[in-house]
Amino acid sequence: RIGTKKSRDSVRVFDGINGEWLAKISIQQEDSRTRRRRDDERIITALCTRELRPQPFAKAQPWLFFAPIKKQRMKLMLEKCTELGVGRFVPILTERTEPSCVLDMTRNMDKLQAQTVEASEQCERLTVPSLSLCISDSAEDPWDLRTLLHEWSTADEFCDKHLLICRERGANGSVPVLNLLKDIPTVESLAFVVGPEGGWSRGEEALCDQYTSSSSNIHAVSLGSLVLRAETAAIT
Question: What pTM does this model have?
Fold first, then answer.
């Protein structure tokens, strides 16, 4: 953390565009009386002195659509999925999504995004995944499952990307996820959908069946024979 550093200390920095650099920090304070000021009241600058790693070739990374869950479990999900290479997090609304979880998430988007930054630093990836309330720039609120499936099956921007809906215990013809991945050329073309605590409702199960049978880029997948927590399913 920068707050624990002193002037002339070295830190490693990255911005997701220009690679990783070694930098020396400078902490400016008005006078000696400001030494005990809070970190956010100090002026901190960093001078990059040496490139450590070039930015890797930019490529798309898998997306994760998820139903908001309780705060601590959601932080764990964001942290671990960032470490595993997810490139974009987008919440969706389901029949069993707790309204309090949605409200808590919308109020804490900055803190949750900071969680992905810290996870990126921890695993030393040079990109930070995005976290947005909706996949569409024109919408202000999260989509529900029906809207997501409709848009994915009709919009040109998703025609080359595969949507994998995680279902419990191989329900209604879903295939083991590893079997399906063999037929998809690149991980970058994938997006996963994980349901809420309590699982999909019957109506949502029927909706998934409808779209997986009629759309070539929407698939139902199984993560095994056990019932997993929402955050565990996302990490798996």
Answer: 0.82
